[in-house]
């Protein structure tokens, strides 16, 4: 016995090791049972074909390692009274999470129909990966999970997100060696540069090197220990290795190492929570667990290596129902865990084993940290009206919308500073996106060296900036899922980087919504700015408004798309979003100086309706029938629509124009499709049933067609938007290239209003000439013509309305 | 003078250092000029307001470092006769790439209107970030670039992709410390585990730590050298540090280190290219360059630190046009480079400096590796007919479509083995996606330890598997952009992980297409399999068919979406895609055993048309008017549509049904919108102008509405597809949950054919009952009813058609 094993034996005792090993075997037994059996759960009789499920769906490979970790965490939770959140990176480890939460009792409390004892066990086995049952991942249905892991890469960012501002929490995060190959995970190790040991909790990464993915070895498992140590030292961790395959020595080793790393964590935190702490970044410990894939499963099947190889990834014995030889392997395998030494005659875990699990909320399947809605406290929100811009008349003020929002977010920060439950995320763009006012009350969090000339960096900042949309997104998800609030401000084009993460979060929300025990969490809020129309510096690569299209595919009860046309509407919408829960709110708003349209009262009324006619901008009174509807969604399209209307009104005073602005895009859908959808009669009242609609939309035109295709007037929708024509040019040239500018919009009205083309021939020619003039001017002078730069909403517009 | 400096002095000589420094200054001067000036390029007169651009757009911060690297690479290219491809990770380094390619003459050769001399210089300055001019990134317009870098994260994967199978190439890849924070970049360092030193080229990463992003320090720059060394040793590199700010010592240091790392690379390659090589993975060298951000620019502006700080990121002196003080700073700054010692009186680079650049194709701006179309050789393709499945009659064979494709890809591998210009990428799923046949002729490439029991791993495999869609995508992009071919096979849901990368590649293609000098490259081909309808193991998290929607937003001349319904159509489509260029082809096809519909001849005719009526499946002859069109796109929807038609035909023999299958989704768009779009008359001939169309589509129904919204019959399109209702269940239950199954499709026909609802009341009731029966059965037995599992296309269908 070497020193470490000696120490382990002393620490935990031989009897303790035996108990833990039996508990582990119980978890393994229940995991195998879930994958294979629909009856005879305690193997009271020899296994028959009809006991085996007809479709064997599940993943064994990662499961015994997860069970091993879970059992060992149970011990330290009890011994140390810890609050531990378990993040199961290998999403395919569903059987392990279900087995352990059932063993500890959490499962039956949440799902009383799956009780303790033989009948509950039978149902537990049967429901797994079974129609109408539970998924094979650590899905929302799984107690104790905030991380499904179906898509790999986000275990560690979720773990850090959960740990921020939860100083008493230890997040044990199992990272599979497959997942460790992904980009988001590779970057996520650097999250320790943003974790404050004084005010945040601890993340304990457990890198599980079981060697293989679906059909390949893994990169990290085939690196030698020297390279691994260097890599993690480079990332800022001290790795502790637990390696082997003999259960008893492995239990001892794991227990010793786990005690060591938890001692380290305690001493790091103790030090950081004294006045002597200088703010230095600690060297956080981590565990590297090398154990065989499919550990304790069949060594070989049909002469082929299974245990400790990728063949154990899914279902190691595939024909257990139809092939008696395979069934024998399965039965021997299950009996090797000696169920008779684990369960009593009624199928309950033996009391001496059950006693190993922590009690009530300390159980990892019952921790409120994994059901964040339980912990969520509503934000204290400032009165947006007090921060609103004075807009004496439409166009009567100019402002950068996001800068006004910055002052609102500053106050949100201030009012919730004590609660420590609001963070702002962004990839190095908080200032660039003009939200600087937040720095009056907080800083960017930064655990690296800070130089005297650095600006707004501190150890306890609540703004998180890192040049990785993946990290911003993942941290925020973890933060929300554990009951807090936040907002992610991002360049519009680059939010696509996290499409797939948003997808998974939307799926999580959809499923959670159907589970009464999962309490609502705060919405995932995006501010997309530096948008497609104002990439003056960056050009084509930074121009993509397609995130809205992506999000619109998600379930209607989950997603919202907002296009506030100015600062006051942006304030109202943001306040609204911060109050909602279980949603994905996408707000798109520019950061450039722009005319302001709505007063506080008008903004509120307009946002509540989601879409409305701006009578002051058109030439028809309410209820009167227009010749054409000039519709718009988005700040730049609104400006161009108003300018186009101005052109039409001046040149064709008889033309009846209605201006409709859409701030909540989902109003366009039918109310049978989306809760925010307008009823058909309300839609028709705005857009008419028969008149041409010239719709200037911020993004790809198709989305408007798709949202309105069931509306009576959809054949008359002429949508102008981004046509993928972009480059580095002036703001007005960008809209011209995509035919979203005032001249093209006015031309479209002329074209589509019956009979107008003939009557307005002169105007049309004039507008075409303007476009030629514009092109020449811009190419000569490198800036927009004064005429378009200086255009302002006519002062006398209010009196004109309804003329 | 320390040893290293001594060596540098001897190697390059003081005169050489002075020349290089002047060349560097020339590049810096031209970079500043591009950002600021529209006239007076040689500062022949004092700088006036009108010489300065009205809008100052560009990025200075990274530029001097890039210029420094470029100048030093020029030296080693000349001295060693190397072929070097320069990957400019900091995309904002456009001014550096343009300056250097102009100095070496490449720029003026490609763009003769931007000549050498003062007039060319004036135009060069003026066009930068100017309307109608060139972008601020290393965009397609930039000679020598395969990597725009507008979106950060992909420099290193592109570099490795370029190096594979190019044994004589050195790819010098500058990684910015901002970019180094992204996930894809963090994972990309592991690409060295897939690079064979014998048959691939070398990648020389140059990590440029200039300390800051837009408004923050960077993580890596604030790590100490010990941590950095550990990190990169862990990644498998030997880092060489070049650190400082005094130009002369920095030139010496850089020259020495560059010689050292190139010697290392040569010795690694020499060794690997002898019979003595044991296949071990070498420790590749890399350079860590620590130089000030905005190096040589203004130290302070308005009392604020600029050089060596993030304030130099974009335009360090922002009001140079309107503010005389600022203009003075700019002028002093530009004159500090002593243009009179760099250029002759005509504005040409002095001959002794021009002589420093390599000549013709060795110039990095002229290397054919950066214009891959020049090097591209068409693939030798097998005759797909020889591998096609014998399908004696529709439904007369069963097969796994992707397995048949595997045999085709095997032959593609075999026929192009000597050319070494085809690779297959996938995140650990080549076998899972049933493409195993390729392993008859090649293996997975793997430079880590190989165990005796490993399967299909070797040092020179042409299949690349890593659990990172980002790496697969990036490697393939780099491989294609340097003139080779490939295919990326991916789980359908997880291709969203690379949405943003696809976006950037589509933008690259769109712009390249407009540049005559950029020769076409092979298309980016996707095989999306393990699709939404067959996630039996994985459930909801693995169910997302939305990539098609995302891609459909891109320019019509770039994107194609194919849904082959069976194996032979999959073969034809794949062959077609491998022959195309400058496109993004997305093929979606299942891997599960499924009935086969079309013979070789029928498959070819059907695929050529893109969409067509399957008369054998319907009950109307060609030209006859149907009561209802049953349309389908995708393998599972096709099966369900045929089964629904079978139900209708049996129960309602008088009903006239036409079955239309769509294999090329873009045929649905108008031919004015997409080159593959059907003309309206052809569309109407298939889909009618007035009859109900029950459209069973593989993905989100909206896409069909959006593609057809301008068609005459669009109001009669009733699309069934994925409604975001997913879970772990049986295959048939999945289609039922989303109402894409035969019963719902038949019910939809009954509902929408005028007058049929009344007549077919009995059938409707029967179908509803079937749905209830199905639900109960699946929940009881865990598998699909035999009736749906065993349904086959009726043998006598051929005789029935046209009855």
UniProtKB/TrEMBL annotation, chains A, B:
It comes from the Bacteria. Its cofactor is thiamine diphosphate. InterPro entries: Phosphoketolase, THDP-binding, Transketo_C/PFOR_II, Xul5P/Fru6P_PKetolase, Xul5P/Fru6P_PKetolase_C, Xul5P/Fru6P_PKetolase_CS, Xul5P/Fru6P_PKetolase_N, Xul5P/Fru6P_PKetolase_ThDP_BS. PROSITE patterns: PHOSPHOKETOLASE_1 (PS60002), PHOSPHOKETOLASE_2 (PS60003). GO terms for biological process: carbohydrate metabolic process. Residues 591-793 form the Xylulose 5-phosphate/Fructose 6-phosphate phosphoketolase C-terminal domain. Its EC number is 4.1.2.-. Keywords: Lyase, Thiamine pyrophosphate. CDD domains: TPP_PK. Residues 17-374 form the Xylulose 5-phosphate/Fructose 6-phosphate phosphoketolase N-terminal domain. Belongs to the XFP family. PANTHER family: PHOSPHOKETOLASE-RELATED. This is Probable phosphoketolase. It comes from Mesorhizobium prunaredense. The lineage of its organism: Bacteria, Pseudomonadati, Pseudomonadota, Alphaproteobacteria, Hyphomicrobiales.
